[in-house]
Amino acid sequence: MSRPELVCPAGTPAALRTAVDAGADAVYCGFQNATNARNFPGLNFTPDEMAQGVAYAHDRGAKVLLAVNSFPTAGRFDLWRDAVDAGARLGVDAVIVADIGVAEYVAERHPDLRLHLSVQAAASSPEAIRYYVREFGVKRVVPPRILTVAEIRQIKSEIPCEIETFVFGNHGLMVEGRCCLTNYVTGLSTNMDGVCSPAAQVHYDKGPDGSVTTRLGDFTFDCFGPDEQAGYPTICKGRYTTPARDESYYAFEEPVSLNLAELLPQLIEAGVEAFKIEGRQRSRAYVRQVVSNFRAAIDQVLAGQEPHLDDLVALTEGQKQTVGAFGSKKWR
Amino acid sequence: MTEIAHGKPDATGAGPLRFLPPPPLFLLQPILARVARRVAGLHPSLFDRLGPHRTACFVIDPRGLPFVLLLVPDPENLVFRAEPRRREPQSDARIAGNFFDLLALVDGNSDGDALFFSRDLDITGNTEAVVCLRNALDDVEGSIAEDAAGLFGAPGRAILAALRRAGDRRGGS
Amino acid sequence: MTGTLTLGPILYHWDADTKCDFYARIADESPVDTVYLGEVICSKRTPFCERHLARVIDRLERGGKRVVLSSLSEVVIPRERNMMRDFCAIDSQEIELNNTSGLYHIDGRPHRLGPLMNVYNERTLGGLAARGATHATLPVELPRRVVGAMAAAARERGVGVEVQVFGRASLAVSARCYHARAHCRTKDNCQFVCEEDPDGMPLTTVTDQSFLVVNGIQTLSHSYLCLAAEIDEMRDMGVSHFRVLPQRADMVAVTRIFADRIAGRADGAETLARLEELNLPAPLSNGFWHGAEGHRHFGPRAA
């Protein structure tokens, strides 16, 4: 059994150090612009901070993976090219890309830089993955969060590259990299601008009874009663009405987070080379708690023990967790 | 699908008043100003992360205390002071939560999103400014609460330790 | 005036008779030049294709239409993987790919790129053109600035460039079937409940705003995207093809209105007035084109 890598999120330099100290084998992060899919206010790294982050991680035997995983639009490619060039110059261990043009640029100009395929590329079959390996020399793929463990095992047996799966955090409902719900409502695009439900257009209106109504742009997509748990203010976690239902319901998914702790042994056995924790937008406290727990759990599985994790449910959306699509095809 | 529902922790608990009787506001103001200057002096990069939201006016409402806090994180014109509830100033954004939860946040010990999910943190107004402030504060290494307590030497640190213990007993983070 | 009018694939689950009748009318009465055929959304719905496809192709070709076959957009399970492999082996018809797994199979042979293929920039377009792409329908969310740059890049490489000008905007796809979910079923046991909603299943906000429609695994806009007023500008940029998507409306009338617009027989305002007379079941939108919220509609003067 090979030792899988634990890949952890860092939205800030402090979170990067926290993740490394908590046992991350690799940390992924991005620059402060639209070149990555978590282009949120106050988040991400300047080139100087990236250089320091790389030094900190490398001194402690950890890797830094640079996310350049949004989609440059025509006329704006330079920003993505500069991000890749800066990553190469600063010594990151890999770049994570989604766009075919960016992948080709890395392959041509930085042939020695490891190329990882982002979940945003939506490579959900062995053929799609083999395409990126054949054309651009991709070394590792992060498939969408919609596959069962059995399907991951099958894919792994048919691809000539490493596979990295999400094990904790946001539960992506839509095929990532194929969603423009945010743009329809806000005029800012997940693929082109790296934003999902931009905070500037999120509004919480508190009612006299303690309920909270969530709005994004011109649309209201949920109303939480005073005692109801909340989730991220995203369109895909909203409640709507439809003729087939008597009451408003979570048309896509309820607020819930992914937690695959119980599936770790199966995923390792399936040959997954790396486990990814979602949450570059989360705090150091989240990073410390989730990373240290998964570090211990992976080490326990490798030592032949039952993995034991603390209760992480307090950190989850809607205070609920699920194995989502990974458990069974019934999720679909 | 495995789903584990989680009950909301008891949010009442002992109020902070038991440990820190609120002094008259005029006594509080110079202390708050010193705290703000200290944190700003120790962590100048914080203001870069705030970007355009440096001049935003935040009201922080520690529920259960008789005052709210007004914060304008502008290095040119730093404002951090207490205001009586009946005269709450106009703000761009308002953050309300239990005192202990807010303390855990600036102590680097709690996750703002998690407090929001459990409805222990209420946000109104300019959400982007709040997210930005949260991200900027979270990049401050160590604990802002400790930096502030350090201003007052051993007694300051003792008070912080007592508050942390009280927060832990409450079942907070 | 130049510009080719195309009819995109039917995205919804219409029953076989409805589809056959629809294409018969298109063959006989519609001025569209090219028709895209095939099931793009759900691999469970494909039996129609197997049973009627040859007949429909023949009917359309006899009506003078060029027929292009569109692939599935989501390829995960073995059935879908096999379908994509077989689809890419077709050599009797031009094909349009909507999933990267098709790029693997096609391996440099000529093909078109569908709107779900994430072709956002000139490098991606160039790379794919070098690997056999002859034509690209751009993602629906691209603003005018980007479409202009893409059209220029496409012209340089001799690649056709197509923009959707009418019909609901595809906003997201998933592995989960939201039609089945609404009816408390799983995807494997959906009993084709999506057939009940030939123009999609409406999702309305809790404050009663019409917002989205669900079509199986796909989520679309409630509004009908409409770039009637923008067609002159697009043509000046070098956009060569204009795509109309089938909705539950009088599509012969819709395609005639757009054909007149493309031929220069009607201006933007007149075209919008004629579309209004059709009493479409949803408002029009063109926000994406203007770099704004996709649901918004800017009048011809703002364009």
Q: Structural class given helices, strands, pairing of chain B?
A: alpha+beta
Gyration radius of chain B, rounded: 16 Å
What is the correct CATH architecture of the largest domain in chain A? Answer: Alpha-Beta Barrel
Give the domain tally of chain A. Answer: 2
| Biggest sheet overview of chain A | 8 strands, parallel, barrel
Spatial order of the strands forming the largest sheet of chain B: 3-2-1-4-5
Strand order of the largest sheet of chain A: 1-2-3-4-5-6-7-15
Integer tally of domains of chain B: 1
* Total helical elements of chain B: 7
User: CATH superfamily name of the largest domain in chain A?
Assistant: Aldolase class I
By CATH reckoning, the class of the largest domain in chain A would read: Alpha Beta
Q: What coarse outline of chain A follows from CA principal-axis ratios? A: globular
State the share of residues found in helices of chain A, binned by percent. 25-40%
CATH topology of the largest domain in chain A: TIM Barrel
CATH superfamily of chain B: SCP2 sterol-binding domain
Termini separation of chain A comes to 31 Å
InterPro entries (chain B): SCP2_sterol-bd_dom, SCP2_sterol-bd_dom_sf
Pfam families (chain B): SCP2
Domain SCP2 (chain B): 57-137
Keywords (chain C): 4Fe-4S, Hydrolase, Iron, Iron-sulfur, Metal-binding, Protease, Ubiquinone biosynthesis
Ordered list of secondary-structure elements with their pairings:
The complex is a heterotrimer of chains A (332), B (173) and C (303).
Chain A: E1 5-9, H1 13-21, E2 26-29, H2 47-59, E3 63-68, H3 77-90, E4 94-97, H4 100-109, E5 114-117, H5 126-136, E6 140-141, H6 149-158, E7 162-170, E8 174-179, H7 181-186, H8 190-193, E9 202-206, E10 212-216, E11 219-224, E12 239-241, E13 249-250, E14 257-259, H9 264-269, E15 274-277, H10 284-302, E16 321-322
Parallel strand pairs in A: 1-2, 1-15, 2-3, 3-4, 4-5, 5-6, 6-7, 7-15, 14-16
Antiparallel strand pairs in A: 7-14, 9-10, 10-11, 12-13
Helix pairs in contact in A: 1-2, 1-10
Chain B: H1 25-42, H2 45-50, E1 58-63, E2 67-72, E3 79-84, E4 93-98, H3 99-106, H4 112-117, E5 121-125, H5 127-138, H6 144-150, H7 153-169
Parallel strand pairs in B: 1-4
Antiparallel strand pairs in B: 1-2, 2-3, 4-5
Helix pairs in contact in B: 1-6, 3-7, 6-7
Chain C: E1 4-7, H1 16-29, E2 34-37, H2 47-62, E3 66-70, H3 78-88, E4 94-97, H4 100-106, E5 111-113, H5 122-130, E6 133-137, H6 144-157, E7 160-174, H7 178-182, E8 201-205, E9 210-215, E10 218-226, H8 231-237, E11 241-244, H9 251-262, H10 268-277, E12 284-285
Helix pairs in contact in C: 1-2, 3-4, 5-6, 9-10
